[in-house]
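Module 6 notes. Inverse folding takes a fixed backbone as the condition and produces residue identities as the prediction. Think of it as a translation problem where the source language is geometry and the target language is the twenty amino acids. Below is one complete input and output pair. Work through it position by position during the lab.
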């Protein structure tokens, strides 16, 4: 099947993937743009997983000021090389993450970073709720774990739905950018300041 340059350009514009990767994805999916996007995303996420053990010593500190100076955020976003750290794509991601932190007020970058005392307090509250609701004993633990998962999706940065696109999480946004750049990207830390807060 012959793939036209127009279709390759459209796919490249929508995904940021390389021209040859776009052409191969279109050939594999019979020129179906949406299927090609899904294919490129899955390949990119697989590549990103392979890069998980690489060191990330480069990056930027991005800032975001919101509500007329009433909320401010600093985010340290890391990658592997200064080349990627200086790209527009990386800077846009850093700013988007900082803006998201301002809007969503997460308590930690990753689930593993949440203070154990906070997790135990939430688990106890959920356990008590489930008991008071009279749920059967044999399913209570599953319900509590489900509630804890929802708590993480609401309060942990990488689990939260991205404010500019609620159909994907902040973690997925970072993984997609990592797939486009070919490097491991991680949020090292953030600080959120609020006047009177």
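Target side of the pair, the amino acids:
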């Amino acid at each position: 099947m012959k793939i036209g340059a127009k279709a390759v350009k459209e796919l490249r514009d929508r995904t940021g993937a390389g021209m040859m990767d776009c052409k191969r994805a279109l050939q594999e999916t019979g020129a179906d743009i949406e299927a090609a996007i899904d294919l490129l995303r899955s390949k990119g996420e697989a590549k990103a997983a392979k890069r998980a053990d690489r060191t990330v010593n480069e990056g930027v500190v991005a800032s975001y000021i919101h509500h007329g100076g009433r909320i401010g955020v600093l985010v340290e976003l890391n990658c592997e090389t200064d080349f990627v750290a200086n790209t527009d794509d990386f800077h846009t991601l850093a700013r988007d993450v900082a803006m998201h932190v301002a809007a969503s007020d997460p308590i930690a970058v990753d689930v593993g970073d949440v203070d154990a005392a906070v997790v135990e307090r939430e688990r106890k509250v959920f356990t008590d709720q489930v008991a008071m609701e009279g749920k059967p004993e044999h399913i209570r633990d599953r319900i509590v774990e489900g509630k804890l998962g929802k708590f993480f999706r609401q309060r942990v940065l990488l689990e939260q739905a991205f404010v500019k696109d609620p159909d994907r999480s902040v973690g997925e946004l970072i993984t997609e950018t990592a797939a486009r750049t070919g490097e491991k990207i991680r949020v090292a830390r953030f600080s959120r300041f609020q006047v009177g807060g």
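Reference fact for the lab report: The beta strands are 58-66, 71-79, 161-162, 165-169, 186-194.
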